[in-house]
Amino acid sequence: MGRIQYATRYLIYLLRAKTKHDVHSPFVFALFTTVIQNKKSFYAYRSIEKLRAMLLGNKRTIEVKDFGAGSSVLKTNTRKVKDIVRHSAKPAKYAQLLFRLVNYFQPKTILELGTSLGISTLYLAMANSKTKVISIEGSETIATLARENFKLLNVENIELIIGNFDKVLPAQLQKINCADFVFFDGNHRKTPTLSYYEQCLHYAHNNSVFVFDDIHWSQEMEEAWQTIKQHPRVTITIDLFFMGLVFFKTEQAKEHFVLRF
Ligand SMILES: C[S@@+](CC[C@H](N)C(=O)[O-])C[C@H]1O[C@@H](n2cnc3c(N)ncnc32)[C@H](O)[C@@H]1O
Hints:
Shape: globular
Largest sheet: 8 strands, mixed
Order of helices and strands: HHHEEHHEHEHEHEHEHEEE
Number of strands: 10
Bound molecules: S-adenosylmethionine
Structural class: alpha/beta
Radius of gyration: 17 Å
CATH architecture: 3-Layer(aba) Sandwich
CATH superfamily: Vaccinia Virus protein VP39
CATH class: Alpha Beta
């Protein structure tokens, strides 16, 4: 998708996005006002952002294997660490939302598809040290750096799995046997995204939370998001433009929200 088209989509989102005054579902209202819009700074934010700043100054070049839809900006397989963190890691605003979602929903286990250097993984893990985070990354060199970052911040509730999602996801799902919270942030193409979604759905329950990154990033991701929303098991979805939240609560009527964030 071209830059102009993407910007136009964002503009349309801004025009369509509702505020708390338009939300009548008590579940979504509480989530929106206490979690999504929460501006409070939590203890972990500072240490993870300090790490991000350090990585943004790291000019070391590494060889990476591109498993996913690739970067719209980084075209070679030799990349500087600072460029990887700049273009791949979720910006603080969205990564911190992941932290608050974990804090609010208290999932026992979290599955992350796409670790990269571990910025979002750290946010997911530091929200609750008792939560086990399983994060999958295909590129071994990137994963090695992510592991160093977890050590640097003394975070021990992360299990990093190196491998292609296509190969390792089924076994990981079987192992946890319950998809409490899944963050889909790798291989942003329609067919793979829907395949990972279907596999996780099999292990989802009434209180599961699925978070999809970059739902409007490309035409393929737009189509994937529409399919995700329409699934009969899905009740509530929340479109925050750069992220989409999906819930399966049977006590909620099916409703799709576009909320300003
Ligand atoms: C956008 S980055 C993840 C960013 C990270 N979640 C963050 O916000 O800090 C996506 C990562 O997924 C990995 N990836 C993409 N497709 C994959 C696949 N099929 N199997 C394994 N890893 C994959 C890429 O190597 C890349 O590091």
